[in-house]
Design goal:
Blueprint lengths: L3 H26 L12 H7 L2 E13 L2 E13 L5 E7 L15 E6 L6 E2 L7 E2 L2 H11 L3 E2 L21 H27 L1
Length: 195
């Protein structure tokens, strides 16, 4: 028969062994869920991409398990991209997503797809604009083509109403009334001052 101190030590050792094994399982399972990218340089990433461009992030919206980024494109290195476009990416970095990008920041996007919404991920080479990243992309693809802002619409004259303009006497009446009231006020003040 087991004595109480011996039983307590065995139970403690069993619990410690179980905790250690569960920690080992968790520790070995975690990397399996991490994003794994094939090692690729910017040349391979640029060649795989259907379009490569620089854009400023506008609105960021959650759509299912993805983020949808509304972008304003300023420069295009590869492909044909409209000034206003959309890119989607997985929300989770563990799924190789770009995560929630900060509005107002500029990114270099290496995307796949023929039309918006384009797809991007962290393995494809997309990331924040830096002098180094721009130089690497330019070395592979050549200089970027600037995407000009759209021309503002031409002004148009619209007739508000078919009525003719008011007469001069109608426009002058309020001013004339103000002058008469002012003169009457001066007369009243002058009479009171004499008393």
């Amino acid at each position: 028969m087991l004595t109480t101190p011996l039983f307590t030590r065995l139970a403690g050792a069993l619990v410690a062994a179980l905790l250690a094994m569960s920690g080992l399982v968790l520790a070995t399972a975690a990397p399996a869920f991490a994003c794994r990218c094939d090692s690729a340089d910017i040349e391979k990433q640029s060649n795989r991409a259907d379009a490569v461009f620089v854009a400023e992030v506008g609105d960021v919206v959650e759509v299912g398990k993805q983020f949808e980024y509304a972008l304003t494109v300023t420069e295009v290195f590869k492909g044909s991209v409209e000034r206003d476009t959309v890119v989607v990416s997985h929300q989770q970095a563990t799924a190789c997503g770009l995560g929630k990008l900060r509005p107002g920041t500029e990114y270099v996007f290496l995307v796949t797809g023929d039309a918006p919404p384009y797809a991007a991920d962290s393995c494809g080479g997309s990331g924040p604009v830096s002098a180094k990243r721009l130089a690497e992309v330019e070395t592979v693809l050549g200089p970027a083509e600037a995407v000009p802002a759209p021309e503002p619409p031409a002004p148009t004259m619209t007739k508000v109403e078919d009525a003719s303009p008011p007469s001069v006497s109608r426009l002058a009446a309020p001013g004339g009334a103000a002058v008469i009231i002012g003169l009457l006020g001066l007369v009243v003040v002058g009479r009171r001052a004499r008393r």
